[in-house]
Amino acid sequence: MMSGVRQVIKPSDCIMAFGIPTSRQAFAEALANPTNRDFVVNCCPVWEKYYYEVVSEIESIEPVIRSLGAKVVHNITLNDFGELFKQQPYAIILFCHWQEAAVEFADGLAPVPAVIDRVPVAFSGFLDLCICHPESLAVTLHNTRPNCLTKFIPGVAIPSYWLYFYWGVFKTLKDSDTSYMDALETTIRAFLSRRKN
Amino acid sequence: MLVKLPDLLKKYLQNVDGLEPVDLGPKGAATRSKKSAPASLAEKQHLVDQLEKQSRVNNRLVACITILYFLIFALAAGLVIYHRDSPKVITTILGGSLLSLLAIIQSLSKLWRDKNAMDMLRTILPNLAPEEAVKVIQSIYFASMMSTADNRKRSAPQWTT
Questions:
Q1: Model pTM score
Q2: Residue B152's closest chain A neighbor by CA?
Q3: pLDDT exceeds cutoff 70 at B117
Q4: Largest CA distance in chain B
Q5: Domain ranges of chain B
Q6: A153: exposed, middle or buried (C-beta count within 10 Å: 0-12, 13-18, 19+)?
Q7: How many of the other CB atoms lie within 10 Å of CB of B135?
Q8: Strand A126-132 relative to strand A149-153, pairing
């Protein structure tokens, strides 16, 4: 497994994983089986809105991200999440919903300890949590997986915004020999300077 | 005044927080459900009133455009008879009237679609609970947004630095 905060990373070392529905079928399945689910059922039960704000953006950005070399996986379950580490990626970017100390994967809400269990103790890469307010997950990861670097969003995570953000990160990683941390920093600066302008 | 259906729906959704972006956390969901339910009963009635008003305007417009359609047709027919000995003029008149009639048909069909959607909403909204009404309106509004945004989405996004 690769390690090192300052090592050069390429998009092919990264996996973008979606636990949220990214197709009409997955959306309909989530709505039809509301037990142990929250995102589609309570946050956005209208497909047209969900498609316009989330799925269409993913459909638009995904080919670009793939062309940069990053891997993209959809509808991941808790088990799939654990399997991702076998591919030995440097960074896993997890797009999931957060509800009361649980992460919602394609197969439903998983409590923080179950998620932590899936992260190998020896994992020394970057776990990028594109999830709203996953503080307890991030803190537990920090305490129990000391080699794993974690980025999380302490505020509201709008999927379409962060999709464009990671596009910027992958573009930076592809165009220059840089570390994941530096690519994040470069992209954050680019976004902030655009906001000022 | 003619107000487009998506604009009416947008205003309603703004008032009931139905345009809040989808986020990945529970906080947004909590805010949405708290705000939209109590406020939307009055908002729903206001929307139904607005739809009734717009539907009347649309009915008048449909009538005017239909009259215009027949007037142009009659005018073209009259001019063709008057210039019956001049094939060039007849061709020009028929071509012109055909184009203008096509434009009229296009606007008429758009108005008709809007009118149908408004009539349907006016019928079903009073029978729906406020939360269900929000879902129906969101469904129609975002479907119309998708059709207008189709071209934007189809073109691959470009990263500019």
A1: 0.83
A2: A60
A3: yes
A4: 77
A5: 41-126
A6: buried
A7: 16
A8: parallel
ipTM of the prediction: 0.80
Say which of B24, B29, B135 has its CB closest to residue A46. Answer: B135
Q: Which residues of A touch B140 (CB under 8 A)?
A: 48
Are A138 and A103 within 8 A, CB to CB? no
State whether CATH 3.40.50 applies to domain A11-196: yes
Q: Are A17 and A120 in contact (CB under 8 A)?
A: no
Strand A91-95, strand A97-98: pairing: unpaired
Q: Which two tokens stand for residue A69?
A: 């070399």
Write out pLDDT tens, residues A67-107.
999 999 999 999 999 999 999 999 999 999 998 889 999 99
Q: What pLDDT sits at residue A197?
A: 63
Cβ distance of B146 and A52 shorter than 8 Å: yes
Residue (of A2, A55, A6, A63) closest to A28 by Cα position: A55
Contact at 8 Å (CB) between B110 and B144?
A: no
Residue A21, judged by CB atoms within 10 A of its CB (0-12, 13-18, 19+), counts as buried
CA pair distance B55, B112, nearest whole angstrom:
10
Contact A20, A159 (CB under 8 A): yes
CA distance B95 to B91: 6
Predicted confidence (pLDDT) at residue B33 exceeds the cutoff of 50: no
Which residue of A43, A158, A172 is the best one to mutate when testing the B interface, meaning the one whose CB has the most B CBs within 10 A? Answer: A43
pLDDT of amino acid B34: 47
Write out chain B residues lying below 8 Å of A52, CB-based: 142, 145-146, 149
Helices (H), B125-159: 130-154
Residue type, B48: V
The residue ranges of every structural domain in chain A are 11-196
Phi and psi (nearest 5°) for A118? -80, -15
Confidence class for position B35, pLDDT limits 50, 70, 90 = very low
A3-38 pLDDT per residue, tens: 567 789 999 999 999 999 999 999 999 999 999 999
Half-sphere exposure of A117 (CA within 13 A, CB side): 8
